[in-house]
Design a protein that fits this description.
Layout: H1 21-32, H2 41-46, H3 48-51, E1 54-58, E2 61-64, H4 73-76, H5 87-93, E3 110-116, E4 120-125, E5 139-143, H6 151-156, E6 162-165, H7 167-173, E7 183-184, E8 187-196, H8 203-208, H9 212-221, H10 224-228, H11 264-269, H12 275-289, E9 303-307, E10 311-315, E11 321-327, H13 331-348, E12 353-359, H14 364-369, E13 376-381, H15 389-392, H16 409-419, H17 424-440, E14 445-451, E15 454-457, H18 488-505
Parallel strand pairs: 11-12
Antiparallel strand pairs: 1-2, 3-4, 4-5, 6-15, 7-15, 8-13, 8-14, 9-10
Helix pairs in contact: 9-12, 16-17
Length: 508
């Protein structure tokens, strides 16, 4: 994994955590790029045991030496990057590793006993597993469902243990006996947010987005609940998230959720949408951005804005302010875009903003991100490990998630300060202050979570390992399957008991 030639996915997540790992990686990368670093590739590889903080102390003990205090390390080691593999075996199979059940090694509760690519995977209980008595299911079958075959139909016939439902499938079973077996699954750590292009080639938007009141007008003028209803019409508020970092996955020594820290908790519990307040912010922005005749200060009239293949238009330097909202071309994305346009037009005033919709036809990455063809977009990002730095470090001025190209020295300083604090409650308080600065200044607008699909299942909820990070959600250890589907009431009761048990563990 530490060898760049292997192209390990997400290696950057841990590269700077383990002592010597980054230097080792970049030495090999430099050699592969033809640079002379005074050592051969073989010499660098041979130095791993001496230079990188990973050592096998004995047959069952692995020691990591870190670059510094890392109180969130346990959420790191859940990542697939830390799964073990025998060097002798990988040397034997080489690039064929993982291409068949014979070219894999197994140390977990199950192993692949049958693999028909793109059709069927059968996993059998591993009788050599250290805790095999708690492997409750003898085998697991994962079968691809053919086109035209409904997972709901298979579930109703008892051929599958779990299925997800689309909104269309949900509507078809309403008022039937099956409705009582449908429940809404837990949300994920993924957060959807709106971001703004602070270096847009559209001079009107580029001038406006620097203005705090204009950003707050956008922030309060978009209704997350209405957008969430596209995916979840029954309970749209379930999906909404108003903090940059997710709730329910980071707790301090006293069991307090990171998102319940002072300041953040107000954002968490209070939807920011307010049409009246949005118009007030917009009116203030116009006073600050425009002269008495509605000319946008600093914008030259007649500027041609070329954002092809998405859009092309000419800026007149006057109100309304042109805003290019770019998204994908699926039916859902188009509906989402039309709602955003309607909200901003109605809440900020058609005399103040002109929302231009642009749609990528082939590749959003190539047509939008690569060419910078956007003013406003919505995007999503996951959360890889259990510490606020996982994403707050990435939205600093030089952060890898700063597609907006903003400059936020105040936020950068707050994040730098928080990164030097290792007592969890003090660390969380410092990071919460940093996140609060981004929200107060409306630099990013979070609005929705990922996950949360409707499901029917015969697997008793909370009998398998629970957790958000790494491979935990794929575990089946301890799973109990009942003969009848889990009812909505049963799921609610089990969830209540689970949350009560978690609460008892707070601070332990």
């Amino acid at each position: 994994m530490a060898d760049p030639a292997h192209g390990a996915k997400n290696f950057g997540t841990i590269r700077n955590v383990v002592k010597g790992l980054a230097d080792y990686y970049y030495d090999l990368a430099d050699i592969d790029d033809g640079k002379d670093i005074g050592k051969t590739r073989d010499e660098v590889v041979a130095s791993f045991g001496e230079t990188v903080g990973v050592k096998a102390l004995d047959r069952y003990t692995l020691e990591y030496t870190l670059t510094g205090p890392t109180p969130y390390l346990l959420s790191y080691v859940c990542l697939e990057l830390f799964l073990p593999i025998e060097q002798e075996f990988i040397d034997q199979v080489g690039e064929d590793f993982g291409t068949s059940k014979e070219n894999l090694l197994y140390c977990g509760g199950y192993y692949i006993s049958e693999w028909d690519r793109d059709k069927l995977v059968v996993m059998a209980k591993n009788e050599h597993y250290w805790d095999k008595d708690h492997i409750t299911l003898k085998s697991l079958n994962f079968e691809a469902v053919a086109d035209g075959v409904s997972g709901v139909e298979l579930f109703q016939r008892g051929q599958v243990a779990t299925t997800r439902l689309t909104s269309e499938e949900l509507s078809t079973i309403k008022s039937t006996e099956w409705e009582d077996y449908v429940y809404l699954a837990d949300k994920t750590l993924t957060t959807y947010w709106f971001i703004y292009n602070f270096e847009s080639r559209n001079p009107e938007f580029q001038a406006a987005i620097q203005n705090l009141n204009f950003r707050k007008a956008l922030y309060t003028g978009i209704d997350a609940v209405t957008l969430s209803a596209i995916w979840e019409p029954e309970d749209p508020e379930f999906f909404c998230r108003y903090t940059l970092l997710p709730e329910g996955c980071m707790f301090d020594e006293n069991g307090m959720d990171y998102t319940d820290y002072p300041g953040l908790v107000d954002y968490k519990n209070n939807p920011p949408y307010d049409a009246e307040l949005a118009r007030e912010y917009m009116d203030k922005a116009i006073e600050e951005l425009c002269d008495a005749d509605g000319n946008i200060i600093g914008v030259t009239p007649g500027t041609k804005v070329d954002m092809l293949p998405i859009a092309e238009f000419t800026s007149d330097g006057k109100l309304p302010i042109d805003i290019l909202y770019t998204c994908g071309s699926s039916e859902t994305e188009m509906k989402h875009a039309l709602l955003v346009k309607e909200m901003l037009t109605n809440n900020l005033g058609s005399e103040n903003v002109n929302v231009i919709l642009g749609f990528s036809n082939i590749s959003f990455s190539d047509e939008v991100w690569a060419l910078d063809n956007w003013d406003l977009v919505h995007d999503s990002y996951g959360f890889r490990y259990g510490d606020p730095s996982a994403n707050l470090n990435r939205i600093t001025t030089d952060g890898t998630l700063n597609d907006s190209e903003y400059e936020v020295p105040e936020f950068d300083a707050l994040v730098e300060k928080a990164n030097e604090i290792y007592t969890i409650n003090e660390r969380y308080a410092a990071f919460a202050e940093a996140e609060l600065w981004m929200l107060d200044n409306a630099m990013i607008k979070p609005y929705m979570t990922g996950g949360g699909s409707y499901r029917m299942t015969r697997v008793v909820p909370y009998t398998t390992p629970e957790g958000y990070f790494g491979m935990v959600s794929y575990k089946f250890k301890g799973a109990v399957i009942q003969d009848t589907p889990v009812t909505k009431a049963q799921h609610a009761q089990l969830r209540k008991e689970y949350e009560e048990a978690l609460a008892e563990l707070a601070g332990k």
